[in-house]
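Q: I'm writing a short explainer about Histone family protein nucleoid-structuring protein H-NS for a general audience and would like to include a description of its predicted shape. Could you first generate the structure from this sequence?
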Amino acid sequence: MDERKRDGMVAYLCRRMAEVGIELDDLAAAIAEDKIKQKAARYRSATGEIWSGEGEMPQWLKQAASAGQSLEHFAVERRPAQAMTEARPKVDWSQDPFAGSRLAAVQPSHLNL
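A: Of course. Here's the predicted structure. Afterward I'll give you a sentence or two in plain language.
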C-alpha cells in the first residue's frame, strides 16, 4: 500500500472512531485482549476462528467433527517461532536451474543421491 493510501485510510479510521466514541486506549486494549486470546487458543479453523478448549465446543468445530474431521487437525502447535525456522532444511538454490519455478522442490533427506 502506498503512503498516500495509507494516510487516507488512517484519516478515515480516525474519523469513524471519533464518530462512535472509540478512543485509542480502547483500541489498544482490544488488540491486547485479542493477542491474549490468540495465545490461549488450542484449536484454530482455516478462517481464523479459535477455541481455547474450555466451555462448550463452538459450532464450526462441532460441524467439522460431525463430518469426520479429528480435533487434532485443528490443534494449534505450541512451538516457538525460532524453533520453527530451525526445523526447516537449509537449501542452496544457487545451483538449481529451476529455482523460483514450481518445479523447484526440496528433496527429502532419505532421497539424496
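A: For your explainer, you could say: The first helix runs from residue 3 to 20.
Q: Perfect, that's easy to follow.
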